[in-house]
Structure formats: structure tokens, C-alpha cells
Amino acid sequence: MKRLYVFAAIVSLACPLSALAGPGVRYRCSDGTRIVAAFDNRGTGSAMLSFGRGPPPLTLPQAMSADGGRYTDQSTEFWIKGRGATLTRGGNTVTCKTR
């Protein structure tokens, strides 16, 4: 149980405050992809990623991470740390940053 509290503390410190308080955080990725990430930190936690005119919104469950906030399913991973993030889809990884 102690590990769970430490994990929650690390995630809450690593996430941008706007991610915890606002409706969504805007990211711009190195390949030009634009993402709006909305975080739901209740219960097990999740991130809903919207890609503008790209694919439909995607909701990823939160996964364990020793550093930052990590959200993943079988095909996509979104890993945030501070104002930066990495997005991995289809074996391709790009770096992203908040404005």
C-alpha cells in the first residue's frame, strides 16, 4: 500500500498543474501532430487524447511509471513528464511539448 501512495505522489508532482485542474492540455509534437490531453485522475486514472482532424479521440488507462505519468493500451503509449511527453503509436515515437 505504501508503494501506491508514493506512486500517486510522484505522478501528481510530475503532471503539469493545468493537467490536473483544466479541461485539457495542448501538446505539439515533433512530427507536427497536435494533441489535446484531458486527464481524469479519479480512480485508476486515464487520459483522453484528441488529435484534431486526425483519428477519433482515444482514451488510455493510466499505467505504472517510476517517473512521470504514463497512459497506455496495447497499441498506443502517452508518457508525460513535466511539460514534455512522448507519444508512441504503431511503433513510431515522437516527442511532444506543451505551449
From TrEMBL:
Keyword Transferase applies: no
Pfam annotation, one family: MliC
The entry's keywords: Lipoprotein, Membrane, Palmitate, Signal
Cleaved signal peptide residues: 1-21
Start and end residues of each C-type lysozyme inhibitor domain: 27-93
Superkingdom classification of source: Bacteria
Protein name: C-type lysozyme inhibitor domain-containing protein
Taxonomy of the source species: Bacteria, Pseudomonadati, Pseudomonadota, Alphaproteobacteria, Hyphomicrobiales
